[in-house]
Amino acid sequence: MLLVLCIDLDDDLGRKAGVETPVVGREAVESAAVALATTDPEDSDSNVLFEGLHIHDDITDEQVEVAAVTGVESGGVAANRKVGEEIDHILAGLTTGEDVHALVVTDGAQDESVIPVIRSRLPIDGVQRVVVRQAQNLESMYYTMKQVLDDPETRGTILVPLGILLLIYPLAEIAGQLGVPGAAVFGLISALLGLYVLFRGLGLERAIDEAVARARRGLYAGRVMLITTVVAAALLAIGGVRGMTTFDAHSVAAALSPVETVAAFIVGATPWFAAAGITSSVGRITDTYLAERFRWRYLNAPFYVLAIAAVLYAVSAFLLGEVGLTYMAVALTAGTLLGLASTLAFAIVESRFPSTPEPV
Question: Whole-model pTM above 0.70?
């Protein structure tokens, strides 16, 4: 049996013509169509009902029934749910031993959003879209534009640059009244637009959102890493300043080669960078312990940072002539032994005292 199903997703039948739905049967659907067309001749849903009647009358080689179902004025999930309930009511009232399949009649893309709901209840042979010839695809175009502008990502991509461009002229006029050069306004707006396009193109807004989300989760979860990261960032900034200060002090005494320039910066910055690395690693180790994901080998991190810092400092100081060859050799040996000793020690501890039970 074929069920010609006329869709009125925004319930014009009920709101305008006062027709109770679902409407089942040719005469009932015809009366509903006439009532709606009489109440509002411009409503396209009356065309849907008449098209359903036309299809019903044209089919003669199988049993056919026509029905009309409606949603709610607000649309969305509530409208789809109501359409599904009315289809269930229609199917329960059909007295036929044949399998029921549907031909859906709509007046545009908005009503067709309910098709998955219909398909979950009975097979669909096809969809017949009815539009007024003088307004071909007008409703579909409107619905598509509405969907595009409702999407936050698409809305930001299209409307934000357009809004910035539209602000150029009024801002230039305001700047002229205040005595500010118009070139400055154009430069500022161009910079804002360029930064926006760059952020969108590189996907940096997602990275920033994720970083903010991680920081928020860490703040509410009581993670030590959040505090140690801030402290480490401050230590890195201080290290950078100290490195530049050391470079300036050495460059005043004599001209430095490129290698000596890097060495001077490392000598001044390394102690602070090492402190930042140790602080950050201790915070991460603490968080893993509190989250019960601790491994003994994680304790290698502070020792590795200390060993690398000792090696870099010794080599850089030697290049600047501040220490002798013996000092550098001792520092290199000590840094290497420190790394090896920590690795071996924590590997032994891990094997003797596993931090998590072995799987059975």
Answer: no
